[in-house]
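User: Hi! I have a protein structure encoded as tokens and I'd like to know what sequence might fold into it. I'm fairly new to this, so please keep things simple.
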């Protein structure tokens, strides 16, 4: 059985969870301990005790530890990528790609540990000097989602450690395997016991304990909007520092002047790969009428070429839905779209394969309208809807007609429209002639409106959340 890591020790919990593959529900990936409220409190105590010792390490020592972690992740990319594909349902190629990204993130923040910046300024008063310092926040609670079970934990854990914080990490209960493997590597990186803690278990137990504890000074969360609101209400009331990455309903705008083949590929890559289970996935295709039907027919033709199957099979391009509840929700949204009057042009049906898994054909709705639930609510599956637009201005209006604002894309050969779109689209990230899903690790990640709350993730902007600023005045 795979145990929790608390204060440098591998410990049992109050129960055990079976980790089953969504490609084959008879395939037991492993058994993973379930932490209690008491276990989580013990982990917080350990982190609180270890954090000053870790913060006192030299930047080189912290950099060396993170570099060790990144190097081992990269060395084991095939093994870890296969594990990820097996437990979460990504294809092996996607799993390996995610593992490589996790290794690169740790390598990047190994460098950032050596580049923690401050400022030295002259005061407006004679004889006084001013220093602006960045210092660690303290104990960081990290609550990660199931859709990127190693990359998203990496881009939270790595900066937290780089800047001298201690971590209590709660992975998604659905995918503990990748999180445990990552934690085992971190455990061997030479950190003081308690600097990093893994507590696996239910959000209502482990997550809620982290959210409520006044000793957890900051919380970095990625997940549903409803859970994010609950965290904001509870932890915000105790003035915890919060970083919340939540939902998305990302538009891809396709204008009449777009390169049609490029636009179709942007749409299919952005909406359907990784089984559509990305917060940045395109779920609304907003297309000018002059190109609308050619685009829809092209997407439909491309979907017919995609192979849906077992995540570990070499010819699979789209794996299964990650779990039964999400699978049933996806199929329910197909029924909702039909009941609202949208036309199902392709897919949206259960698929039978050689193994018992959660397979469905990628769905394309056409003639959707902006007020429909399938055009407003985050589905988080391989389902997208196409909405016709009269012109560019109408397309921009439709694209902004959402409570979310994470990622948005436009396909156009017009510099005029591309320039206008990037400034007037209400989203944290804008993609021009490239899929809405797919980001780099060295630049900021985050959204607007109800998609994000707090400081940006990734790159040098991570310092805004994982450090606190102190201003020091010195009389010479």
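Assistant: Happy to help. Inverse folding works backwards from shape to sequence: for each of the 476 positions I chose a residue that suits the local structure. Here it is:
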């Amino acid at each position: 059985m795979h145990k929790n890591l608390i204060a440098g020790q591998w410990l049992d919990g109050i129960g055990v969870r079976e980790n089953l593959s969504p490609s084959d529900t008879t395939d037991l990936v492993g058994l993973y301990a379930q932490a209690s409220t008491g276990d989580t409190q013990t982990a917080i105590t350990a982190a609180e005790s270890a954090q000053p010792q870790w913060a006192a390490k030299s930047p080189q020592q912290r950099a060396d530890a993170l570099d060790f972690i990144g190097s081992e992740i990269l060395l084991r990319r095939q093994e870890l990528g296969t594990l990820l594909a097996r437990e979460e349902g990504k294809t092996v190629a996607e799993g390996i790609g995610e593992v490589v990204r996790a290794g690169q993130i740790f390598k990047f923040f190994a460098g950032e540990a050596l580049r923690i910046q401050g400022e030295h300024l002259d005061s407006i008063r004679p004889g006084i000097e001013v220093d602006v310092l960045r210092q660690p926040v303290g104990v960081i609670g990290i609550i990660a989602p199931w859709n990127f079970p190693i990359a998203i934990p990496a881009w939270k854990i790595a900066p937290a450690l780089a800047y001298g914080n201690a971590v209590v990490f709660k992975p998604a209960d659905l995918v503990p395997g990748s999180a445990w493997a990552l934690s085992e590597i971190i455990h061997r990186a030479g950190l003081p016991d308690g600097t990093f803690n893994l507590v696996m278990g239910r959000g209502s137990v482990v997550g809620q304990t982290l959210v409520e504890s006044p000793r957890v000074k900051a919380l970095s969360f990625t997940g549903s909007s409803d859970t994010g609101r609950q965290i904001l209400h509870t932890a915000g009331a105790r003035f915890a520092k919060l970083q919340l990455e939540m939902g998305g309903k990302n538009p891809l705008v396709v204008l009449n002047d777009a390169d049609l083949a490029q636009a179709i590929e942007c749409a299919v890559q952005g909406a359907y790969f990784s089984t559509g289970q990305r917060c940045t996935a395109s779920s609304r295709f907003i297309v000018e009428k002059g190109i609308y039907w050619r685009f829809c027919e092209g997407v439909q033709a491309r979907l017919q070429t995609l192979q849906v199957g077992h995540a570990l099979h070499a010819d699979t391009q789209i794996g299964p839905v990650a779990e039964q509840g999400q699978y049933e929700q996806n199929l329910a949204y197909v029924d909702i779209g039909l009941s609202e009057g949208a036309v199902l042009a392709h897919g949206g049906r259960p698929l039978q394969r050689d193994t018992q898994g959660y397979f469905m054909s990628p769905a394309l709705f056409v003639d959707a309208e902006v007020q429909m639930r399938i055009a407003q609510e985050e589905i988080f599956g391989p389902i997208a809807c196409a909405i016709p637009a009269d012109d560019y201005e109408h397309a921009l209006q439709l694209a902004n007609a959402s409570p979310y604002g994470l990622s948005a894309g436009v396909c156009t050969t017009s510099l005029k429209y591309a320039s206008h779109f990037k400034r007037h689209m209400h989203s944290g990230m804008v993609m021009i002639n490239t899929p809405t899903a797919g980001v780099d690790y060295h630049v900021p990640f985050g959204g607007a409106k109800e998609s994000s709350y707090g400081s940006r993730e990734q790159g040098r902007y991570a310092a805004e959340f994982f450090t606190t600023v102190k201003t020091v005045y010195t009389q010479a």
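A useful reference point when you look it over: The chain has two domains: 4-246+451-475, 250-432. Feel free to ask if any position seems puzzling.
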